[in-house]
Design a protein that fits this description.
Layout: E1 93-94, E2 112-113
Parallel strand pairs: 1-2
Length: 115
């Protein structure tokens, strides 16, 4: 799709991007820099966010159903109200400032608390 190029070494640079409400379902955002990006209410169903840097990103009420967040960085991310049904978080790193949806267990989902 539009985010990827023929060169796999090019990573989308979306630091501080305002993507509130955008439809990014099934997009390949692997290795993207989404530091401090506003992804509130974004549709990210099935998106590939492997190794994406979502440090301090705002993901409130985002739809992350079946998204792949493998080895993503979620330190300081706000996932209040996000739908993480079926999301894969194996190896995703978070910290004490990461805000998860009510009742969500990041460890059971495969995420790891960074020291």
């Amino acid at each position: 799709n539009a985010w990827r190029t023929q060169n796999p070494d090019i990573r989308p640079e979306l630091t501080r991007a305002n993507l509130e409400g955008f439809d990014l379902a099934r997009f390949d955002l692997s290795q993207a820099r989404l530091v401090r990006a506003n992804l509130s209410k974004a549709k990210l169903m099935g998106a590939n966010l492997r190794v994406a840097n979502l440090t301090n990103a705002k993901l409130t009420d985002a739809n992350l159903k079946n998204a792949k967040l493998i080895n993503a960085r979620l330190s300081g991310a706000d996932l209040t109200g996000a739908d993480l049904t079926g999301a894969v978080l194996k190896g995703a790193m978070y910290d004490s400032t990461t805000i998860w949806p009510a009742g969500f267990d990041p460890v059971a989902a495969g995420a790891e608390l960074s020291q």
